[in-house]
Design goal:
The chain is mostly helical. It has one domain: Methane Monooxygenase Hydroxylase, Chain G, domain 1, CATH 1.20.58. The chain is 84% helix and 0% strand. It contains four helices and no strands. Helix 2 runs antiparallel to helix 3. The longest helix is centred in the C-terminal third of the chain and has 59 residues. It is rod-shaped, with a radius of gyration of 27 Å. 10% of the residues are buried.
């Protein structure tokens, strides 16, 4: 890598906090669903999970990009050390910064994975409740028919 490429990479690394912040702002727009009926609650959970998956995909892409940048900068620093050149403080700081950003991104990925897992559990429980409710409605209808309240089979 040439000096110009390193300077460009350092500028790119300096932009990671802003990019992470934009993803966080977008993530805050994801609203946890609320509904009083099971059907709309399931649809709300589907939308919620879809938004979470889209968000986690964005974080994973950013993480992959940061990994490539880290590998490039780390390789450059190692090559510089191997030929006996002095590694500048700004290069070392950039390497530490990218590691910190990668750790931050990984934390958000883990958090969103957890939210997706919890959302899937809630969705499954809602679907089970919907099935049980339908069974209860059928049972109530059959009871009314059996009782003879004007309904015929």
């Amino acid at each position: 890598m040439e000096l110009l490429q390193i300077k460009t990479l350092q500028r790119k690394i300096a932009e990671y906090p802003e990019r992470i912040s934009k993803l966080q702002a977008r993530q805050k727009l994801i609203v946890t669903p609320s509904a009083t009926e099971i059907g709309p609650a399931i649809k709300g959970m589907d939308a919620y999970l879809l938004f979470l998956r889209a968000g986690i995909s964005s974080y994973k892409k950013l993480y992959e990009e940061a990994s490539v940048d880290f590998a490039g900068l780390n390789s450059y620093i190692e090559n510089k050390k191997s030929i006996g050149e002095v590694v500048s403080d700004s290069e070392r700081i950039s390497l530490v910064q990218i590691q910190q950003y990668m750790a931050t991104i990984q934390n958000y990925i883990k958090i969103m994975d957890s939210q997706i897992d919890n959302g899937e559990v809630v969705k499954q429980k809602l679907m089970l409740a919907q099935k049980q409710k339908e069974a209860v409605d059928v049972a109530n209808l059959l009871y009314i028919i059996k009782k003879g309240d004007g309904y015929r089979v």
